[in-house]
């Protein structure tokens, strides 16, 4: 082999190393981007499930408050209530319901109540809350 051929082959071995390092860096960037997307989508699913649980807890709190507001005895008592749930689907959720008696301007209505139920659910570091409002008349 001539001296020129040896010089050319020694120069080309360094370029293969540069190409290999470049490919490794590009593949690492792709893997990191995909793992970040995967983590982001799993967080979105957790927040969606937790949000649904919080909505159900707010609705359950509202229904429990309505049974307190309008008991079978017929005596309405508008106050604030707080509920902690221990059922399997709502574990870690709590709801608070605030009741406000509204002034009545119509002679057809005996009493108007405005209820606001706010629930929050806690699962590890994920905390979500939902709120619903309802107006009822007696």
Quick synopsis:
The protein has one helix and four strands. The chain has one helix spanning 3-69, and strands spanning 80-84, 93-102, 112-123, 126-137. The chain has a four-stranded antiparallel β-sheet with strand order 1-2-3-4.
Structure description:
There is one protein chain. This protein has 138 residues and is an alpha+beta fold. It has one helix at residues 3-69, and strands at 80-84, 93-102, 112-123, 126-137. It has a 4-stranded antiparallel beta sheet. It starts with a helix and ends with a strand.
Based on the model shown, name its key terms.
single chain; 138 residues; alpha+beta; 4-stranded antiparallel β-sheet; 1 helix; 49% helix
Biggest sheet, spatial arrangement of strands = 1-2-3-4
Please trace the helix and strand order, writing H or E for each element. HEEEE
- By DSSP, the count of extended strands is 4
Category by helix and strand content: alpha+beta
**Which regions have little confidence, pLDDT < 50, spanning 5+ residues?**
none
Question: How confident overall, as mean pLDDT?
Answer: 84
Shape assignment:
rod-shaped
Helix content: 40-55%
Distance between the termini: 105 Å
Main sheet, how many strands, which sense, barrel? 4 strands, antiparallel
- β-strand amount: 25-35%
Instruction: Determine the number of helices (DSSP H or I, runs of at least 4 residues).
Output: 1
Alpha carbon gyration radius: 32 Å
């Amino acid at each position: 082999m001539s001296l020129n051929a040896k010089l050319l082959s020694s120069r080309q071995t360094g370029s293969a190393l540069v190409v290999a390092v470049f490919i490794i860096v590009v593949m690492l960037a792709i893997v990191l981007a995909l793992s970040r997307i995967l983590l982001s989508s799993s967080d979105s699913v957790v927040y969606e499930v937790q949000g649904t649980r919080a909505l159900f807890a707010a609705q359950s709190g509202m229904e429990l408050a309505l049974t307190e507001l309008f008991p079978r005895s017929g005596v309405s008592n508008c106050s604030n209530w707080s509920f902690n749930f221990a059922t399997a689907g709502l574990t870690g959720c709590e709801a608070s319901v605030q009741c406000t008696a509204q002034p009545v301007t119509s002679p057809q209505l005996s009493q108007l109540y405005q209820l606001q139920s706010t629930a929050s659910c806690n699962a590890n570091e994920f905390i979500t809350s939902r709120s619903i409002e309802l107006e009822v008349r007696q």
